[in-house]
Amino acid sequence: MDRIGQMERTIARLTSPGRGILAADESYPTITKRLSDHGIESTEENRRFYRSLLATTPGVEAYVSGIIFFEETLGQKTDEGVRIPEACDRQGIVPGIKVDKGLTELPGTDGEKITQGLDNLGDRLDGYLEQGALFTKWRNVYAITPSTPSRQALETNAEVLARYAAIAQSRGMVPIVEPEVLMDGDHDMARCAEVTEAAQGAVFEALRRHRVTLECMILKPNMVLPGKSQPRPSVEACAEATLKVLRRTVPAAVPSINFLSGGQTSEEATAHLNAMNRADGPRPWVLSFSYSRALQNPVQAAWQGDPANQGAAQKAFLKRARLNSLARNGQYEP
Ligand code: 13P
């Protein structure tokens, strides 16, 4: 199959009705923090057991179309000795891979960040493809302060995201493009909307410059919310503000928008997605999820690092996945 045909097939699987994506791609420091919040040690065996538990949850394929893994997981096996990406694929879930190498300071700015990992990316992707990954994820971040993001950060981050997406597509892998405006701070919702629009606007300009095929990518944005220290708006206000920005920035050619949860509670993330799928007005894209914390928090709480709790952990995952699937159809009743 040619490159475009391969990506069209992957997109069709990832965007199939009622489903969304699980991000289980935390880097070593991040998974260590997440697990330690539940008193679980981040050993290689615990990570293998846990991610295999997620990928093999019976029935979850009705709600989850793809799982983004971390590099380590692609080489690990389930208890039955099946490689995790293959176990995932057998269940009808598309395996993907986070390909960025994390954040570093962007010199010349006031502590703003840029994402690393473009060097040798094509070679790394060839290896991930061999291990079964069919789509990729790359995350850039934008912090809101009175003076940031700077124009320099907006333009440089957009350029890097677009270069990543172009390289992924050159291998026939569907890129998830993730420009995350962080929730930290005491800014209001209007400021988040303004920054999100500027970040996404610059990203789509750069994607066009690099001739990225918009039909074969997924956008993974933040929702529009005030800073963490501020009171939360109504669910409908968040949905309306987020849709307003997306309508201004995301071409209708993009098949799917899969949100990150970004520190929202599991219930908030589900309710916001649901409200967007119920809202009036044009919505030319699939609106679904690509949550990490909002899907996994309850799973880790149920698992506690004890193999005996596998059933309870899978039950918690199935529940969250099902509720987000309802929200993706606008049928969730809080
Ligand atoms: P959260 O849903 O926890 O924000 O994570 C999504 C993600 O994959 C960040 O890159």
Automatic annotation (TrEMBL):
<comment type="similarity">
    <text>Belongs to the class I fructose-bisphosphate aldolase family.</text>
</comment>
<dbReference type="InterPro" id="IPR000741">
    <property type="entry name" value="FBA_I"/>
</dbReference>
<protein>
    <recommendedName>
        <fullName>fructose-bisphosphate aldolase</fullName>
        <ecNumber>4.1.2.13</ecNumber>
    </recommendedName>
</protein>
<keyword id="KW-0324">Glycolysis</keyword>
<dbReference type="Pfam" id="PF00274">
    <property type="entry name" value="Glycolytic"/>
</dbReference>
<dbReference type="InterPro" id="IPR013785">
    <property type="entry name" value="Aldolase_TIM"/>
</dbReference>
<dbReference type="GO" id="GO:0004332">
    <property type="term" value="F:fructose-bisphosphate aldolase activity"/>
</dbReference>
<comment type="pathway">
    <text>Carbohydrate degradation; glycolysis; D-glyceraldehyde 3-phosphate and glycerone phosphate from D-glucose: step 4/4.</text>
</comment>
<keyword id="KW-0456">Lyase</keyword>
